[in-house]
Amino acid sequence: xxxxxESHRIPLxxxxxxxxxxLGTYADPQKTPKGSCLEAVKIAIDAGYRHIxxxxxxxxxxxxxxxxxxxxxxxxxxxxDIFYCGKLWNTCHPPExxxxxxxxxxxxxQLDYVDLYIIELxxxxxxxxALYPKDENGKFIYHETDLCATWEALEAxxxxxxxKSIGVSNFNRRQLxxxxxxxxxxxxxxxxxxxxxxxxxxxxxLEFCRQxxxxxxxxxxxxxxRDESWVNVSSPPLLxxxxxxxxxxKYNKTAAQIALRxxxxxxxxVIPKSFxxxxxxxxxxxxDFSLTENEMKEIEALNKNVRYVELLMWRDHPEYPFSxxx
Length: 326
What we know:
The chain has helices at 36-47, 61-73, 95-109, 147-159, 173-180, 203-211, 242-251, 255-265, 277-284, 293-300; strands spanning 9-11, 17-19, 23-24, 51-53, 83-88, 114-119, 163-169, 191-195, 215-219, 269-270. It is of the alpha/beta class. The chain has a single domain (17-314), classed as Alpha-Beta Barrel (TIM Barrel). The chain has an eight-stranded parallel sheet with strand order 3-4-5-6-7-8-9-10. A two-stranded antiparallel sheet has the order 1-2. Helix 1 packs parallel to helix 9 and helix 7 packs across helix 8. The longest helix has 15 residues, at 95-109. It starts with 8 loop residues before the first strand and ends in a 26-residue tail after the last helix.
């Protein structure tokens, strides 16, 4: 696979294609200054990124949309050059809410369609204005999940031209099979966005998805923040890994660039999040070298099968996806 900064798209099973490297835009709205995401997306587009990963619950889709529109107005890009992924949140799983939710996202972005729309998590929460609904005891209020019905509503959004492709996120094998074996399936998921990096290489899920022509999109491809409120910090920071740093020295690259190149070379899409201009540009500089077969094997051997993002606060949900082996 000859990947270049200009051309690193891989095919999706529905005839569309996805760039292997994208910019993640997750940020804590409490801690992130307004306009940070807007600037980050503009810098990323100037650096060559054409894939932006966002979500309604990041509370910054208006900035993403503005950045894309400004770059189109400058003549830097056309709309069809950009691949934008949006996500359906847990409180919007009932089929009748899916299309209005996507339409709301499009209104926020001020775009006519998203390139990929995915079910963010297989766990439904009680619908309503609260994104994280809780009862008076502070316990999360769940909703009965019918992933097949939610999926059918996504299929209708694709038919209506509101989403070019549709996929899922954080689904395990059983949940993927439930959709794929659904009677009357019209479109199968083109992608499954999951945690994936050298400490959590997802070999079994990756193999399963390859067999079914589902692209894995790896979030937290550089490990993740060390925020103990939602991150498992028992696993050491990925970017301090001696092997990644040693290989980096050989190629005059950072440990982060080695980690990204590793996944891209395996056909895993990566969406590193950064609002730091230097790191945004650095993360894109992974197309001017390639890892040897032996280096790929060495990095694969770093796998610890330990997630950083465990979402343990929802582990009592009937559709909590991470109790299964994969």
